[in-house]
Write a structure and sequence with these properties.
Length: 134
C-alpha cells in the first residue's frame, strides 16, 4: 500500500521535471541545431553580439551591443528611437526568453536591422546561448 502512494507522488514530480527541462529556449535551440554545422557557443554569440556591421544605406556601424549594451543585465536604449530596452539577461528578467514566438520575432527583426539580413540558425543558436548564459 505504501509503495502505491510513493509511486503516485513520484509521477507528478517526474512530469514536472520533464516540463521544466523543455524550456522555450531549449526547444528553439533544438530546432536550430537541426540545421547547424556545430554545437552552439556562447563565445561565438558574444563575438557576434559585439561585431559591427555597416548599414547598407547610411554606412553607420551597427551591433547588438549598440542598443542592448555589452552588459546584458543592464537596460539599453534603441539607437534610433531612444526607447529604453529592458535587460536581456534571464538572470535579471526571466520572462525575456520565455515566449518562443516573441524570441523568433525579435531575432528576425534585430538581425535584419543590425546585420542587414536574417541570422542563420547557427548565429541564432550562438546568440541565444550567449544571452542565456547571462
Amino acid at each position: 500500500m505504501n509503495h502505491k502512494r510513493i509511486i503516485v507522488a513520484i509521477i507528478p514530480l517526474t512530469l514536472m521535471s520533464v516540463t521544466l527541462s523543455a524550456s522555450p529556449i531549449n526547444t528553439l535551440l533544438g530546432d536550430y541545431a537541426k540545421t547547424s554545422d556545430k554545437p552552439f557557443s556562447a563565445e561565438r554569440g558574444q563575438q557576434l553580439w559585439t561585431q559591427e556591421f555597416p548599414h547598407t544605406k547610411s554606412g553607420t556601424l551597427r551591433s547588438c551591443s549598440v542598443c542592448h549594451t555589452n552588459e546584458l543585465t543592464r537596460k539599453g536604449k534603441h539607437q534610433r528611437t531612444q526607447k529604453i530596452i529592458d535587460p536581456l539577461a534571464p538572470s535579471v528578467k526571466p520572462s525575456r526568453l520565455s515566449d518562443v514566438k516573441k524570441v523568433k520575432k525579435w531575432l528576425k527583426r534585430n538581425c535584419k536591422w543590425t546585420l542587414g539580413r536574417e541570422c542563420t540558425p547557427q548565429e541564432k543558436g550562438d546568440l541565444l546561448t550567449f544571452i542565456q548564459s547571462k
